[in-house]
Description:
The chain has about 150 residues and is an alpha+beta fold.
Amino acid sequence: MPENLVVRVGVQAIVRSGDEVLLGLRHNTFGHGTWGLPGGLIETGETLLEASARELAEETGIRALRMRLACVTDPDARANYHMQIGLEVLEYEGQPRVLEPHRCTRWAFWPVTALPEPLFVGSHHVLARVQSGDLYAHDALGMLSRSRRLRL
């Protein structure tokens, strides 16, 4: 890795409907024309759960009610040295809507076994873990709440 680069941490929300997963078609942003999970960077002072819930609500209007840590990926040079933390949304309210049309043109649920291509580089490794079922089996972070704070 080049010397002066900083590894950044992003969150990816894994929202399911049956055997399907929610993906958005990226537009006018890094990864234009690729399909990715809702997500983004963690802001200072946020927990992983708060960041993922915020990104999900900002991008789709979906309100996460219960989430858990699902996977952690290594930094990827193709993704500007971002590492991703996948958080599985176990319960939610609402239906996906395009709330940031300048960044995403549509949201759709796709069968886990038949994902669209190309996939966003930041979501690729998380989705590979979803497809293989290689997710953390226990509820490591519990319910979305302010009583359990994980500071970065």
